[in-house]
Amino acid sequence: MARRRKRGRSVNGIFLLDKPLGLSSNHALQRVRRLFDANKAGHTGALDPLATGVLPICLGEATKFSQYLLDSDKGYRSTFSLGVRTESGDCDGEEVSRADASGIDLQQINQAVETFRGEIQQVPSMYSALKHNGQPLYKLARQGIEVERPARSITIYDYQIVDFRPGVVAELDVEVRCSKGTYIRCLADDLGQMLGCGAHVSALHRTLAGPFHETETISLEALQELRESCEPEQLDHLLKPMDIPVADRMAVELSEDVAAYFQMGQEVMSTQAFRNGQEGDIVRVFREGGAFLGVATVTEDGKIAPKRLVVEDL
Predict the structure, then answer these.
(1) What CATH number has the domain spanning 74-209?
(2) What is the 3-state secondary structure (H, E, C) of 1-62?
(3) Domain extents for the chain?
(4) Looking at 18, 48, 189, 190, which residue is catalytic?
(5) Which of 161, 163, 252, 310 sits 20 to 30 Å CA-CA off 226?
(6) Residue range 249-309, CATH number
(7) What's the CA gap between 259 and 15, in Å, rounded?
(8) Rounded Cα distance, 312 and 314, in Å
């Protein structure tokens, strides 16, 4: 029986999308995949439909390294509405309480915000994609089911107040840089609880995802406009190299002969790893003077063991 031909072409790299308001991350992903005519695509941490901003989309072999972006730090700009609490912690959820926030001043907010800086414990939202017995929490929440969620350690590296507009429903603009697993809606809800008035996220924009900044992103509209006047291959210059998610790891080069054994999944000797690495380190592996081959783990005896391999086009 003839092997079924894969849909789309083989293209490897990372596209930095400025995700638009109102579109799910998966729908945005599928539109980018179609515009590039890529046979495989994956995103690196979903943004809710109400959120905009940096959404790295991995195409082809780059999907093998998306986990490193999932694990990276993030940055956000957000508007918190003080005085209204919602069940989901954002403006898409049903209102559960309302209080007059006109008595809240900037000094109170500054004092409250200070308690959220650094390493803190955060209870994930019931409207998150975390799973309980195989079911995403948000699906349970939509059925009216709430389950206990253990608090998790996160780090808020920076939490700045940008603007404050007082009122019965006050608005607070903030900028946050945080570790993976941080829920901005939980930051808003917890702040509202501390201030005694309730709060929710009314706007959210991701400014940073690992090494990628919002200034590097391209909108869907711009990508669509470019695609209308060219073939998919002519869009490839917009892609970032697929080793960028691990750009902070040591790079090692292998000779052509040694690289061939590495690509077959075998541990190989690396002088660079032996001299400069430690057991358990993750390293980037390149063919000498050439292509990215994947990532490897440094072994006890200074060899490198393949962890994620790039399958090169034949």
Answers:
(1) 3.30.2350.10
(2) CCCCCCCCECCCEEEEEEECCCCCHHHHHHHHHHHHCECCEEECCCCCCCEEEEEEEEEHHH
(3) 13-71+212-238, 74-209, 249-309
(4) 48
(5) 310
(6) 2.30.130.10
(7) 28
(8) 6
Rounded Cα distance, 104 and 107, in Å: 8
Q: Specify the amino acid at residue 195.
A: L
Q: Do 13-71+212-238 and 249-309 fold alike per CATH?
A: no
8 A C-beta contact, residue 39 and residue 8: yes
Whether 48 is catalytic is: yes
- The CATH code of domain 13-71+212-238 reads 3.30.2350.10
pLDDT tens digits, the chain, 314 residues: what are they? Answer: 444 445 789 999 999 999 999 999 999 999 999 999 999 998 887 888 999 999 999 999 999 998 888 889 999 999 999 999 999 999 988 999 999 999 999 999 999 999 999 999 999 887 777 777 777 777 777 878 888 888 999 999 999 999 999 999 999 999 999 999 999 999 999 999 999 999 999 999 999 999 999 999 999 999 999 999 999 999 999 999 999 999 999 999 999 999 999 999 999 999 888 888 889 999 999 999 889 999 999 998 889 999 999 987 64
